[in-house]
Amino acid sequence: MSQDLYAILGVSRDASPEEIKKAYRRLARQLHPDVNPDAATQERFKEVTRAYDVLSDPQKRQMYDLGGDPLSAAGAGAGFGQGFSFTDIMDAFFGQQAGNRGPRSRVRRGQDALIRIQLDLAEAAFGVSKELKVDTAVLCTVCGGKGTAPGTTVSQCGTCQGRGEISHVQRSFLGEVRTMRPCPTCHGFGTVITDPCRECSGDGRVRARRAINVDVPPGVDSGTRIQLTGEGEVGPGGGPAGDLYVEVFVTPHPIFARQGDDLLCAITVPMTAAALGTEIELPLLEADVPAPESDVQTSLQLEVQPGTQSGEQLVARGLGVPRLRSSGRGNIVVTVTVETPTKLDDQQTALLEQLAALRGEEQVTIDIESRHKSMFDRFKDALGGH
User: Fold this and answer.
1) Residue 10 belongs to what domain range?
2) Residues 95 and 33 in one domain
3) Are 197 and 147 in contact (CB under 8 A)?
4) 174: in domain
5) Beta strand pairing status for 155-156 and 191-192?
6) HEC sequence for 198-215
7) Do 10 and 90 sit in the same domain of this protein?
8) Are residues 244 and 267 located together in one domain of the fold?
9) Which of 44, 81, 246, 265 has a CA-to-CA distance to 200 between 20 and 30 Å?
10) CB 301 within 8 A of CB 279
């Protein structure tokens, strides 16, 4: 060959393969036809590509150093791109990650896992420690995650010689296009397990049921997820475990309905109790806690004031749900419903009639005319009296 291929790439004759690759990447970025479309630059790019095609291949480089013509021996001369590596073009513009070059590791991080637990309202409000049974992938204790039978190791793949990839040459109108593909024998690992572990079949992990404890903080609600770092699936090859997420579902309570940090409930009182006033003992959420401490208040004396109307709300402040990862608690909001009796005996009817007479309520009338007049007067006032 008349041209000095080392001079074309701008490297010395004893340059390492990495130096040759770096030089080619630099020149390819400068001279690629997509960047510099003029004819002179394209011709220069062809020269650089042919030089790299020879010097990046150990056999062709050796032939060239001995004075031979590796391009002619390979049937070169078909035009631009003869024998060039498409992967190396991609590397020149995007770096090595564009082609996933080299063998990949057998050790990878495991997947995250998700389980759901049911809590009653008191457990969600005040927190609880739960033991969970989890079925996940765990480290194989026989091979320690290596995937090989005891006393054996992985061996280099004979197909790709440990590179994890093989070259594939395809003819096109540009000439021969060489691309790199994962090795079908080792699947890109560069090594093969000739004698896999019988316990895990070479995966380095097995499935097993194990028990873990989760501390549920006070104030969680349905949909809250608790992250347990490193408690998920162990990765292939004994890789680090993923995370375990515990999602909470709170079951309905017979008395209270939760709204944020507040507890809502409804009570029904007789008409007479609403009129005269009364006291009702309302159990608190603390009453649902197993074996509460002696100084913990488990009920509340709720005062219904005389004359309480149906729909009125009574508020007990600071007795609701503790705020998640914060201080303080919500409130208990009690809605009162006044119950009107539907069945009266003669004596009860006589007493109510006597009460109605005392209050002048034997007959209830509504002054519709005066009400409408009042509304009309307010409308006139809004218009300025016109």
Assistant:
1) 5-99
2) yes
3) yes
4) no
5) antiparallel
6) CCCCCCCEEEEEEEEEEE
7) yes
8) no
9) 246
10) yes
Same domain, 37 and 93: yes
Would 90 be classed as within a structural domain? yes
Task: Extract the residue ranges of the chain whose pLDDT is less than 70.
Answer: 1-2, 34-35, 67-68, 71-102, 171-177, 366-386
Residues 36, 117: one domain? no
Q: What pLDDT was estimated at residue 27? A: 87
Quick one: pLDDT at residue 181?
Answer: 85
Q: Token pair 């009364």 is at which residue?
A: 278
Give the chain's largest Cα–Cα span. 130
**CA–CA–CA angle 186, 189, 192 (5° rounding):** 45
By DSSP bridging, strand 113-119 and strand 191-192 are: unpaired
Q: Looking at residue 64, what is its pLDDT?
A: 78
* Strand 205-216 versus strand 128-139 pairing type: antiparallel
The count of C-alpha atoms lying within 13 angstroms of the C-alpha of 243, restricted to the half-sphere facing its C-beta, is: 8
Please state the separation of Cα 274 from the chain's center in Å.
52
pTM beyond 0.70: no
In a domain, 191, yes or no: no
Residue 341 near residue 272, CB atoms below 8 Å? no
Total domains in the fold of the chain: 4
Q: What is the pLDDT of residues 33-91, one digit of tens each?
A: 766 777 788 788 888 888 888 888 888 887 777 766 776 544 443 333 344 444 445 45
Q: Are residues 241 and 108 in the same domain?
A: yes
With CA atoms as reference, report the closest residue to 251 among 130, 123, 129.
123
